[in-house]
Design goal:
- This protein has 412 residues and is an alpha/beta fold.
- It is 33% helix and 18% strand.
- It starts with a strand and ends with a strand.
């Protein structure tokens, strides 16, 4: 018998709200969190817009001294983890800290600290570089800081798979509990890469849209899509074994029943053109959960708004779902919050859980006319109210990394 794993807490910092409730309400209202970049001067940049987190005060979540020793991506992770742990009602006084672990990933870590200190190195010499540069920059510090802040002494890992980071992090946390390595895992992703080198790099790669109208910028599956919009934030959940959750009488939001991970082994940025890698990840997740394609009500697509991703992900869904592909509801949360890179999977997993809890699938905002080859039901126009018993969350990362999580409505 596999250990059953349930979701008991959620926390989110996003471009449309700095807690799960505001984020979810924003999705229901089709609120678009995209606007002009404020974090640096974009005069010389082709890309002028991003989906920034607004009104974030780290001191509301941790003491000012701790906040000062963390870069933005770590602050987001700690803030989201705090909300998730409080939501779950985890009391560390009553837990064995070595049985509570962390799996919080970041795709990039802190570009800002690297930029800042490299400038110092050039202008003032090596002796002026901040002694905390390395511990503030490296991407595992999100997981490390979460563990330190809340006294979590179990397995502490940082899965880095570019844009699939959040999904792999939750999947590996799910496996850790299934394998008996932990009873509780704080899991998800975080990112804050709206920095000059980040925007310049993705622009040079022609991955970002140069559209300047926030309402026509992140438009997954639309014929006018022209690249993704960079977002930032964090999505963190508390997973625990069903036995542990029941023993402490926890509120259970949903059950994680499947996880699939594959690699396209094809190209460093483009997905496999036939969608086979992503299809196999979805198939593995369904096989893991013991369900058939017809059982799936909803897919939260990776849906980045790049030409290749949306077309090849559509092919992948057709490959994995066969005739049922046209019946399954699909949407892209990125249509409102942009692409949160390493945090995308964490936030989109929360969207799946909220969709199950509320019986609602949000619209893909901004989708007006489907692009060539994008001929499935992407929840165009308005969101829909319907029973969601099974949902899949997909993430596909540069390097060919594919990950799918299968979550279901909890039944004892």
């Amino acid at each position: 018998m596999k250990t059953r794993v349930v979701v008991t807490g959620m926390g989110a910092i996003t471009p449309i709200g700095n807690d799960v409730e505001s984020f979810w309400n924003g999705l229901k209202e089709k609120k678009v969190g995209i606007g002009p970049i404020t974090q640096f001067d974009t005069t010389d940049y082709k890309v002028k817009i991003a989906a920034e987190v607004k009104d974030f005060d780290p001191k509301a979540y941790m003491d000012p001294k701790a906040a000062k020793r963390m870069e933005r991506f770590s602050q987001f992770a700690v803030a989201a983890a705090k909300e998730a742990l409080e939501d779950a009602g985890i009391d560390m006084e009553k837990e064995d800290p070595f049985r509570v672990g962390v799996s919080v990933g970041s795709g990039i870590g802190s570009l800002q600290s690297m930029e800042r200190e490299y400038k110092k190195l050039l202008d003032k010499g090596p002796s002026r570089v901040n002694p905390l540069l390395v511990p503030m920059m490296i991407c595992n510090m999100a997981a490390g800081n979460v563990a330190i802040q809340f006294g979590l002494k179990g397995k502490c890992i940082n899965v880095v798979t570019a844009c699939a980071t959040g999904t792999h992090s939750i999947g590996e946390a799910f496996r850790s509990i299934q394998c008996g390595e932990a009873e509780v895992m704080v899991a998800g992703g975080t990112e804050a890469s709206i920095a000059p080198i980040g925007v310049a790099g993705f622009t040079a790669l022609t991955a970002l849209t140069t559209a300047e109208d926030p309402m026509r910028a992140s438009i997954p599956f639309d014929k006018d899509r022209s690249g993704f919009v960079m977002g930032e934030g964090a999505g963190v959940v508390v997973l625990e074994s069903l036995e542990h959750a029941l023993a402490r009488n926890a509120k259970i939001y949903a059950e994680v029943v499947g996880y699939g991970a594959t690699c396209d082994a094809y190209h460093i940025t483009s997905p496999a053109e036939d969608g086979s890698g992503a299809a196999k990840a979805m198939e593995y997740a369904m096989a893991d959960g013991g369900v058939k394609p017809e059982d799936i009500d909803y897919i939260n697509a990776h849906g980045t708004s790049t030409h290749h991703n949306d077309l090849f992900e559509t092919k992948a869904i057709k490959l994995a779902f066969g005739d049922h592909a046209k019946n399954v509801h699909i949407n892209s949360t990125k249509s409102m919050i942009g692409h949160l890179l390493g945090a995308a999977g964490g936030v989109e997993f929360i969207t799946c859980v909220k969709s199950i809890e509320n019986g609602f699938i949000h619209a893909t905002a901004g989708l007006e006319e489907e692009g060539e080859g994008c001929d499935l039901d992407y929840t165009k126009g308005e969101g829909i109210s319907c029973d969601v018993n099974y949902a899949i969350s997909n993430s596909l990362g540069f390097g060919g990394h594919n990950a799918s999580l299968l979550v279901k409505k909890f039944q004892q």
